[in-house]
Amino acid sequence: MHPTLAVTLQSMQQDLARVQSIAANLANASTTGFKRAVVAARPFADLLQAANAAAPGGAGGLALVTDARAGTLRLTGHPFDVALAGEGLFEVRTAQGTAYTRQGDFHVDAGGRLVTARGDPVLGQGGEITLLKTPVTIDAAGRIFDASATAGGAPERPLAQLRVVQPDDRAGLTSIGDGLLSAASAVTPMAESAYQVRQGYLENSNVNPMQEMVQLMQALRHFESMQKVAQGTDDMLSTAIHKLGEL
Fold first, then answer.
1. What is the dihedral of CA 216, 218, 220, 224, to 10 degrees?
2. Phi and psi dihedrals of 130, rounded to 5?
3. How far apart are the first and last CA of the chain?
4. CB 202 within 8 A of CB 105
5. Are 9 and 59 in contact (CB under 8 A)?
6. How far apart are the C-alpha atoms of 116 and 118, rounded to whole Å?
7. Is residue 88 packed enough to be buried (19+ CB in 10 Å), middle (13-18) or exposed (0-12)?
């Protein structure tokens, strides 16, 4: 394939990937704790150089990166709704292994376990959290207390404590669906002074619909430009072949 056509084809594929990512972001603009996905692509100059050099992999180089920035918080008043002000992730156990989330819409299942909205156990400092006493209060460090015991004065020994972690490489976070993230790098428990748990709050999505719409228009216009480049190149090659045939 002609290098120019190879580059334009790859650029159009990148634009389509951006449109798909933007569509997913907009669909989850109101999803609790959702983190927008961003398509990171190689610069056009790198694509052209790779195409000219017939480099292995051609003009590839797409990567889907999770934007881990925090969203705003909204008050719900539900005792098992928790949000993180600032950095950090809650740790949960799924059928596929350990995962991480900012979605704090937890509840207690029939067995007394603290679980996510889809039923995955929430992990604490000592493993799965089982709450035999409710209602509870949760302090800024994620310590869970029996509400009836704390009402009379100084709190007693906590029933459990939420495990809040931070990945060593935030760029390595990947969405695996249902508000869950997987980490390509190791994760480190955060010091209690480095985060703040807010009981009765949930984190909004960090998607800005206006920003996504602007990026959607940019992607569509770039796609149209690449179409014109491909058409112009095809016309040029057709003319060249026609002239050679006349000779």
1. 180
2. -115, 125
3. 24
4. yes
5. yes
6. 5
7. buried
The pair of structure tokens assigned to 36 is: 């927008």
Give the pLDDT confidence score for residue 178 in this predicted structure. 83
User: In the prediction, which pLDDT does 59 show?
Assistant: 40
Q: Which residues in the chain show pLDDT less than 50?
A: 54-59
Supply the pLDDT for residue 57: 42
Q: What is the pLDDT of residue 58?
A: 42
pLDDT given for residue 241 in this prediction: 79
Per residue, the 3-state secondary structure of the chain, as one string, reads CCHHHHHHHHHHHHHHHHHHHHHHHHHCCCCCCCCCEEEECCCHHHHHHHHHCCCCCCCCCCEEEECCCCCCEEECCCCCEEEEECCCEEEEEECCEEEEECCCECEECCCCEEECCCCCEEEECCEECECCCCCEEECCCCEEEEHHHHCCCCCCCCCEEECEEEECCHHHEEEEECCEEEECCCEEECCHHHCEEEECEEECCCCCHHHHHHHHHHHHHHHHHHHHHHHHHHHHHHHHHHHHHHC
Predicted confidence at residue 1, as pLDDT, reads 64
Cα Rg of the chain, angstroms: 25
- Joined together, the tokens standing for residue 205 give 């999505």
Task: Give the per-residue pLDDT at 49.
Answer: 61
CA 242 – CA 46 distance, rounded (Å):
32
CA dist., res. 117 & res. 199, Å (int) = 16
Kindly report the pTM of this predicted structure.
0.73
What residue type is 228 in one-letter code? K
